[in-house]
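Hello Y.,

Per our agreement to keep a running log of every chain we model this quarter, I'm adding this entry. I've kept the format consistent with earlier entries: sequence first, then predicted structure.
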Amino acid sequence: MDEWETWRQLRAQQHDVVTRAQLLAQGFTDGGISAQVDAGRWQRVHEGVYALFSGPLSIEAERIAAFLACRGVALLSHETAAELHGFLKPDLGRPVHLTVPYGTSDFRSDGLRVHRSRAFAHIGETGSFPPRTNRTHTVLDLAVAAPDAADAVRVLHTCALDARVHPGALERAVELRRPPRHRRAINDGIGLLRDGVLSVLEHRYLVDVEQAHGLPVGRRQVPVLVDGVRRYEDVAYDLPGGRAIARLDGFGFHGDQQIALIDRRRTVAAALERTFSVPFGWTEVTSFACRTAREVESLLRPLGWIDPFQSCPSCRA
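Predicted structure for the entry above:
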């Protein structure tokens, strides 16, 4: 491959964003670089980093420019890495986040957020360009950066599900890095995943319906036999007087006829086993959590639940 083709491929890979060192290696001079910038044909993005075009940068060019500004010893991280991994929607309005090795000298540039990590050598995604933190450590970074403990649980749980990160991988990441913020909340979020809380709706049901009102915490992802096939119920309450099931989806959300049929057959199977089975959807759990909690209480009392119902702040309001 000749020198020109190598240069062309480099520019394509870097979205026409290059460093001063790369330009000098191609025979440009400092004066020539300044002349191109002064003429408006190129633009300086960060110190020593240039876009070989005029006009706004694409989100891809912004990321490359940020990485190159750190002299190549950096990983795109946090929201930026989440966008690259595909579990966060890209947004040009966000700053570009980078993580550099702990002890790296101070670095500041407009539009960049720089983090430092002692575990830098262990958190990167192998073979990626631009280099980024892997899915597991990206989820952990977002949880650590959450403003409070409750949000840390929500962020970790939601992002881990969206990124398809196994709770065991998160446990190993926490052990490696020992996050300085929200460690207990992060472990709680991992526990939710371990216990089979597999959607944002299930998390809201756990927190806003069960925990907020002192209801028993049911077992998650309980196997049941339906027409000879093993299926799973979202939440099952096993009490002295029998079992009750809360199904967290609701029939109205099924456009797929096969899924709707399976849900109907689960309901029939529960009825034949003399088991109460009730569906709750997003609206019931998020907008009417207190009413839903009272309905679950009414379901559980005849089966032997005797503990007091707790009124949450919304109930009292």
